[in-house]
Amino acid sequence: MTRIVHLVDDTPPESLGRYLDFLTGSSEMGFGRHMVVPVLKNRAGGLSIEADVIVSHLPISWRGMPGLMSLRARHTGTPMVHVEHEYCEGFAEANVAGKRRFKTLLASAYSMFDRVVAVSPSQAAWFLRLGVVSKGELTVIPPSVDLASFRAVPAPGGPARVFGAIGPFQTQTGFDLLVRAFRRVEDPSLRLRLIGDGPERETLETFAKGDPRIEIRPFGANRAAALAGVDAVAMPSRWEPFGLGALEARAAGRTVIAAHVDGLADQAFEGVLPVPSPTPEAWAAAIRTLARLPFDQERAPGHEARTASKWSEFLAMIRREQAALGTAPLDEQGCA
């Protein structure tokens, strides 16, 4: 069985942790033996790994480049794959001043790997436009988690009355925009529930002050339970390479309204309702519209199997390439 080692920062984002739990623990991923190895920040170069495939989920930075170079040098005969969870077009537009230097960073880092995995078609298309990876070295595999607990959440009883926004209170998630938009909606029967915590909590409390319809709650470990308490989910993210929260909300039968950016834009093809403009006026209009719509949301059928199938096909391709070079594991040489 193929040994796949996943490298992850020792303090990974919570959403990445859920994805790794799926990769390592789901029966859907039983075609390989998956192991997660935590890596101290920028210290990948000291690792010596016995694996058939190394999959990096590590953040890319200039400080981490020496470690990546050393990791590559230590494992010259082992296929190395990088999954890009952080960078996307929306991120670059919002955060990157030196575009040329940033492009050089990505191109240099990705050249250390045999393959790069994008988490959404939009992210992959941006990579190709930017010219940081070739089409032949790029694969798209949307992430997944075990969605069984989300599909078990009862469907809402009717049109949305309680809108939820779940996630960290930070610039990326755009909850400040959502609060300003909700305050423009006159309907006294509607509610907005913000669930999470983070550096922008005080700002959100200030924006919400005086509107009893807006509630701020701490985040609990049970995301399915949080979704059970709302009728619809709003994701006004300023950037989002994939948008795992939208997938979970859809699996819970909740209609999602989301910013038309990055991976969230791709999910518009699967039932997410896009908000075309990042303005309070556009978001207020979307909330008013959704409050009038009947419930109609499929529960992301078959998503876990599709993610597992893409990983299986991807790793089978790598095994075939190894066999052609005579470097595949002995029990797999000659296997398709």
In short:
This protein is an alpha/beta fold and 336 residues long. It has helices at residues 14-25, 65-74, 89-95, 99-110, 121-130, 148-151, 175-182, 201-208, 223-228, 244-251, 262-266, 280-290, 303-325; strands at 2-9, 32-39, 53-56, 80-84, 115-118, 138-140, 162-166, 191-195, 214-217, 232-235, 255-259, 273-275. It has 2 domains: 2-145 and 304-325, Rossmann fold; 149-290, Rossmann fold.
Provide keyphrases for this structure.
336 residues; alpha/beta; Rossmann fold; six-stranded parallel β-sheet; 13 helices; 12 strands; 37% helix
Structural class: alpha/beta
**Mean pLDDT across every amino acid position:** 93
Unreliable segments (pLDDT under 50, ≥5 consecutive)?
330-336
Order of helices and strands: EHEEHEHHEHEHEHEHEHEHEHEHH
Report the CATH architecture of the largest domain: 3-Layer(aba) Sandwich
Tally of DSSP β-strands: 12
The separation of the N and C termini measures 13 Å
In CATH terms, the superfamily of the largest domain is Glycogen Phosphorylase B
